[in-house]
Design a protein that fits this description.
This protein is mainly alpha-helical. The chain contains two helices and no strands. The protein has helices at 2-18, 26-82. The protein is elongated and about 80 Å long. The termini are far apart. The relative contact order is 0.05.
């Protein structure tokens, strides 16, 4: 609950800071966004690559587990039929 209240207060401050009738920080905010956009896009790209690599590793691990599970079931079916 406290986090929601703090979030609403910070959003209200941001809007008030950008309005010309209060702090009139609009041009500085735009300049900051222009400056941080390349850095932010690079960080998001790196994060996406790491997530993609982790996803590929998880899929390979799931395939190994599925193969082992099928092999285990096949062995027990064969042993069950022999008895």
């Amino acid at each position: 609950m406290v986090a929601i209240i703090i979030g609403i207060i910070l959003i209200a401050f941001t809007v008030a800071a950008a309005l010309p009738c209060f702090l009139n920080w609009g041009p500085e905010i735009i300049m900051f966004l222009k400056g941080c956009a390349p850095v932010l896009s690079a960080l998001i790209g790196i994060l996406a690559v790491f997530i993609g690599i982790a996803d590929i590793k998880d899929k390979k691990e799931a395939e190994k587990e599925e193969k082992a599970s099928r092999q285990y079931e096949d062995e027990h079916k064969e042993n069950g039929n022999a008895q």
